[in-house]
Amino acid sequence: MASKISQSKSDLTKRDFRAMIFILFKLQKTRVEIYESFQEHFPNLVPSLSTVERWYREFIDGSFVLEDAPRSGRLNISHNEENVNEMLDLITKDPHITYAQLEYETEYHRDN
């Protein structure tokens, strides 16, 4: 009987699962075999089957990058008083300022 590995969500990242999928892909396991193995060993953390399939497809297509691709989204800023005041000042001066301009002016970056 296979043992279950006790992990908290903070212990395993998306990158960790992607790396495990890559190793199992190289060992010629199927998408379903990988998913079922994750369900057995990481019952509370397993990514969805569609996620496993998407990453598996990326490996088939020759993309072996384990990091998520950059994407647009909300600005990644820390919510301290100085940052909030800086943003409010820029928005007050120009209510039509864009996210890109805020990012440039404040040197904050979008989530990746």
UniProtKB/TrEMBL annotation:
It holds the Pfam family HTH_48. Gene3D superfamilies: 1.10.10.1450. GO terms for biological process: DNA double-strand break processing; DNA integration; double-strand break repair via nonhomologous end joining; mitotic DNA integrity checkpoint signaling; replication fork processing. GO terms for molecular function: DNA topoisomerase binding; double-stranded DNA binding; histone H3K36 methyltransferase activity; histone H3K4 methyltransferase activity; single-stranded DNA binding; single-stranded DNA endodeoxyribonuclease activity. One of its GO terms (cellular component) is site of double-strand break. It comes from the Eukaryota. Signal peptide: none annotated. Residues 14-62 form the Mos1 transposase HTH domain. InterPro entries: Mos1_HTH, Transposase-MT_Hybrid. This is Histone-lysine N-methyltransferase SETMAR. It comes from Oopsacas minuta.
